[in-house]
């Protein structure tokens, strides 16, 4: 996988850059600070990660909470874990925000003589049965010969802040100690229970467990693999509450329906329970959703009667995936469950809307994309999160790479109400240049469209630049719409397409002619303010969302007035100011005027007044006294739904069809408005279309149950979509793929389907006939394609989807590829171009083969071609083989894999060309008939010479061929070919390139 492979390499190779060793830090190096919000230290002066909490008790100070951490030291554009030391935070009460920071308590090379500097990953401090403190940490073993040099060491101290010494003098756990393993030995978590010590560790989905004696270093039994943890990735944390053991961990079972995370690169915190510290474990769910950093790491314990969870995020000033900072929040329990469950953690501080005035309105839009479900290395929400990183990882962007990329993709924004827009800023990402047809490249071209009952190009765009360094700006004449999309034509090399990736897409609002500061009336105790304000654009007025500064209960505690500021979505000139009047809800004396109610519809707007999704109907009530209302809403003949003490109420309208919504509002005095009604027409179901092929012509039909079919569209190959008016004929004798789709009157489009018009094989064939064959193979790797054999493309640097290849864990000595044609063809030569990524003699990877040969089907068996020239094995040029002409409907190439004497390398081919050379059609009349003679089947072929002079005639069948010299004008050439079986399938015979069919027959 493109982006995934590169970024994972950065994650695995964490800590490659190290700084020079420093002198051991002491507890005296600490300093104090006060901060009451997360992250604990969030000013960007120090980045901390992988928190491990510990409660330390002493007669002098009582209970204190220590949070041991790693130290992230990566630069802002470095995608690598630069971690050279461990530190800690200490507090007597997290709620006070008073902390002591120990920035450098231990460095691996200063404690473990067998360790290299750096790689100070997640560890944990526990208090041993002897009262001393033990710090279990992963370090890189300097002199290890193992495939992975990570090991777990143990440091010991009489104080929770050190100084620390090596408890063992070597690794506690490595790939050879105390027993062999092949995992990455990091992320230890430890539970001390009396004289028993339990250690869990492991990453990349591999978790191990081993018990130790009370000396904290002598194994008890053997290490065990741990199962039962759905989606386990890394960062285990073992603890006990009551009689139940809990194991929290960073989980990643990515996918659209995942309860953990949709993206590969993010993790949730999940957990499992057991009745024993050694398991077995039962998965219980997710307690912390993905945070702003790709990694996540839990630590959970009870402190002063309150359970706490510590974790890290990228939320500090200047933070990032490799510049993380530790946070702390409360853990709540559901003790009605057995065993008690951990409730979803409520992260603090609560996320607030960014009220900075700016023209961008994308952050308020709903995102849809063409490639749902999105490949799990990407994240759709990154499109409009207003975050652009200096060196992004895949989840920091939306992308489309799959290995086989289509020619066009799109992203779409939808708002609940009409917006006035006039510009765009888009940030493309690439790992390949344009024109390569592989990897991820900036699009060849793109454009912006808006919805106005149908998709229309925005008027007078300035330009559509495709740079990949910073935002690409486009301005256009202002339009009013609820939907806008960017349509990308992928970069190609002539036959294959690159993927597209976008880090951020901003849509810029047209700036208002004027915004009047609104006068707002609320009742005593009412803190919700109107969600939209009227904004004037020339002669039109739109109701645009507004985010108000928070108001407090004191502001609305009694009748009076106050002023509040708000940020109007897309208004860059500054905030607006509103005067808020607070009234008494009981002020109804003499009120005989009914309120009014207005209905506003929102949803995914279609064409002709239809919605293409569930629609939302908002009833806005207004009363002359300014008080709140009782608003009743109903859909069709369903019972009314009433919202009390409201200024507006919403109701969802679902289901395809035509609906009616009715609303009334009643004020505090009991006056009821006249009913307001709105028709809501929904067609959220795509039409269906089918195609039938006959005589190399495609007939398409379509149906739609709700709004009806508007049109059918088709495209031949990569051509433009064209409105269908009748059967589609092939433009020439070659094979063609026809795409087709239906569009209903609501604007829904069916998923495009394809049908293949086969090549016309009736004429004499010359040149490469590989593209009109059906390819098969003995085996094809999942990331390769057998269709690449005859896609008529020869890219200089093919992607995996542009190869046929056979790499797998077990590779045989021979493999084969095969072409089948619908009739026998006279073949004279073939060319193959091989591909490799390994040298000969390795027995691994993909290497050039030792040899290969061509075979044809003679009607009953495979036979080697005769008169063949040399069979080359080049991986940089085509290897052409000529042979005695053979007429057949099948040919295959059998490839002998390269070997190291024990195992075989895989083989791969970029293109296989097979060449025909059939004579021009002769004036002959051909008939063919299947017959039974003595219980055996035969194919009898007769060819009459219709020319005015003698001619040579060659009869060809799947069961042999016969040549006749100088058949007289008007004369016949006849031969009965034995099938050598009791039955013959229907087939075709030829004479001088002229075909005749015969029926199936069983004798």
From TrEMBL:
Q: Which Pfam families match?
A: Big_4, Glyco_hydro_43
* Site entry: Important for catalytic activity, responsible for pKa modulation of the active site Glu and correct orientation of both the proton donor and substrate: 187
Q: Which residues form the signal peptide?
A: 1-27
Give the InterPro entries listed for this entry: Big_4 (IPR011081), Glyco_hydro_43 (IPR006710), Glyco_hydro_beta-prop_sf (IPR023296), Glycosyl_Hydrlase_43_Enz (IPR052176), Ig-like_fold (IPR013783), Ig-like_OmpL47-like (IPR058094)
User: This protein's superkingdom?
Assistant: Bacteria
Q: What are the protein's UniProt keywords?
A: Carbohydrate metabolism, Glycosidase, Hydrolase, Polysaccharide degradation, Signal, Xylan degradation
Q: Which GO terms describe its biological process?
A: xylan catabolic process
Stated family: Belongs to the glycosyl hydrolase 43 family.
Name of this chain's protein:
Ig-like protein group 4
């Amino acid at each position: 996988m493109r982006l995934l492979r590169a970024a994972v390499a950065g994650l695995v190779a964490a800590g490659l850059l190290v700084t020079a060793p420093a002198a051991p830090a002491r507890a005296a190096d600490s300093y104090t600070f006060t901060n009451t919000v997360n992250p604990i230290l969030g000013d960007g002066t120090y980045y901390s990660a992988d928190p491990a909490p510990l409660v330390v008790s002493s007669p002098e100070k009582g209970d204190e909470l220590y949070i041991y951490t790693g130290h992230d030291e990566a630069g802002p554009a470095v995608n690598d874990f630069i971690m050279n030391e461990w530190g800690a935070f200490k507090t007597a009460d997290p709620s006070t925000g008073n902390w002591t920071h120990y920035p450098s308590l231990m460095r691996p090379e200063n404690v473990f003589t067998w360790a290299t500097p750096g790689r100070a990953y997640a560890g944990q401090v526990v208090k041993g049965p002897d009262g001393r403190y033990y710090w279990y940490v992963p370090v890189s073993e300097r002199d290890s010969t193992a495939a992975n040099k990570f090991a777990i060491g143990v440091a010991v101290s009489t104080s929770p802040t050190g100084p620390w010494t090596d408890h063992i003098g070597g690794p506690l756990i490595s790939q050879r100690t105390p027993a062999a393993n092949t995992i990455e030995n990091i992320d230890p978590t430890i539970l001390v229970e009396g004289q028993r010590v339990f250690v869990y560790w492991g990453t990349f989905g591999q978790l191990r467990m081993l018990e130790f004696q009370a000396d904290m270093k002598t194994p008890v039994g053997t290490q065990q693999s741990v199962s039962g943890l759905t989606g386990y990735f890394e960062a285990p944390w073992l603890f006990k509450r009551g009689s139940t053991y809990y194991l929290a961990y960073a989980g990643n079972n990515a996918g659209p329906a995942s309860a953990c995370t949709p993206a590969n690169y993010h993790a949730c915190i999940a957990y499992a329970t057991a009745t024993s510290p050694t398991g077995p474990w039962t998965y219980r769910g997710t307690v912390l959703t993905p945070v702003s950093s790709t990694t996540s790491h839990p630590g959970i314990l009870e402190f002063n009667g309150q359970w706490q969870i510590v974790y890290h995020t990228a939320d500090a000033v200047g933070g990032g995936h490799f510049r993380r900072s530790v946070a702390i929040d409360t853990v709540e329990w559901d003790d009605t469950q057995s065993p008690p469950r951990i409730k979803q953690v409520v992260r603090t501080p609560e996320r607030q809307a960014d009220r900075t005035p700016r023209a961008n309105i994308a952050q308020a839009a709903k995102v849809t994309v063409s490639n749902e479900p999105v490949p799990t290395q990407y994240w759709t929400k990154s499109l409009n999160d207003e975050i652009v990183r200096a060196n992004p990882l895949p989840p920091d962007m939306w992308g489309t790479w799959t290995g086989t990329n289509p020619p066009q993709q799109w992203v779409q924004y939808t708002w609940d109400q009409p917006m006035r827009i006039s510009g765009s800023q888009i940030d493309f990402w690439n790992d390949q240049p344009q024109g390569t047809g592989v990897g991820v490249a900036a699009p060849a071209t793109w454009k912006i469209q808006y919805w106005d009952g149908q998709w229309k190009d925005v008027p007078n765009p300035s330009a559509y630049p495709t740079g990949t360094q910073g935002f690409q700006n486009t301005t256009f004449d202002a339009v009013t719409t609820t939907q806008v999309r960017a349509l990308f034509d992928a970069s190609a090399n002539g036959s294959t397409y690159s993927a597209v990736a976008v880090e951020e897409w901003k849509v810029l609002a047209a700036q208002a002619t004027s915004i009047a500061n609104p006068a707002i009336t609320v009742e005593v105790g009412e803190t919700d303010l109107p969600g939209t304000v009227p904004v004037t654009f020339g002669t039109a007025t739109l109701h645009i969302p507004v985010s108000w500064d928070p108001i407090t209960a004191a502001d609305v505690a009694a009748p009076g007035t106050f002023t509040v500021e708000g940020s109007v979505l897309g208004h860059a000139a500054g905030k607006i100011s509103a005067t808020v009047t607070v009234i008494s809800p009981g002020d109804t004396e003499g009120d005989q005027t009914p309120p009014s109610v207005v209905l506003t519809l929102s949803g995914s707007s279609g064409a002709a007044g239809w919605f293409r999704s569930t629609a939302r109907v908002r009833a806005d009530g207004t009363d002359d006294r300014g008080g709140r209302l009782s608003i009743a809403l109903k859909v069709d003949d369903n019972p009314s739904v009433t919202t009390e003490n409201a200024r507006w109420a919403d109701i969802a309208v679902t289901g395809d069809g035509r609906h009616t919504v009715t609303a009334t509002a009643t004020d505090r005095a009991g006056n009821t408005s006249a009913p307001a009604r709105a028709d809501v027409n929904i067609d959220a179901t795509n039409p269906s279309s089918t195609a039938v092929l006959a005589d190399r012509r495609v007939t398409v039909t379509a149906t739609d149950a709700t709004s009806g079919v508007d049109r059918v569209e088709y495209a031949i190959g990569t051509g433009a979509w064209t409105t269908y008016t009748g059967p589609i004929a092939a433009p020439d004798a070659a094979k063609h793929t026809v795409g087709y789709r239906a569009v209903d009157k609501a604007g829904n489009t069916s998923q495009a389907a394809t049908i293949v018009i086969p090549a016309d094989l009736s004429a004499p064939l010359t040149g490469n006939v590989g593209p009109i064959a059906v390819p098969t193979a003995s085996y094809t790797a999942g990331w390769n394609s057998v269709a690449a054999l005859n896609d008529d493309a020869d890219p200089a640097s093919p992607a995996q989807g542009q190869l046929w290849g056979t790499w797998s864990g077990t590779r045989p000595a021979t493999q084969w590829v095969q072409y089948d044609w619908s009739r026998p063809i006279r073949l004279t030569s073939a060319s193959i171009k091989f591909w490799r990524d390994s040298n000969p003699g390795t027995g691994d990877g993909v290497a050039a083969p030792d040899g290969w040969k061509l075979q044809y089907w003679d009607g009953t068996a495979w036979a080697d071609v005769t008169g063949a020239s040399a069979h080359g094995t080049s991986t940089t040029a085509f290897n052409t083989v000529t042979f005695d002409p053979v007429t057949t409907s099948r040919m295959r190439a059998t490839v002998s894999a390269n070997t190291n004497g024990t195992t075989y390398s895989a083989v791969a081919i970029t293109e296989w060309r097979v060449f025909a050379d059939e004579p021009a059609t002769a004036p002959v009349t051909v008939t063919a008939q299947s017959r039974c003679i003595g219980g055996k089947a035969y194919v009898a072929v007769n060819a009459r010479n219709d020319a005015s002079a003698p001619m040579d005639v060659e009869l060809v069948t799947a069961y042999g061929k016969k040549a006749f010299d100088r058949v007289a004008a008007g004369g016949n050439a006849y031969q009965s070919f034995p099938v050598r079986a009791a039955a013959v399938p229907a087939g075709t015979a030829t004479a001088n390139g002229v075909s005749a069919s015969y029926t199936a027959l069983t004798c």
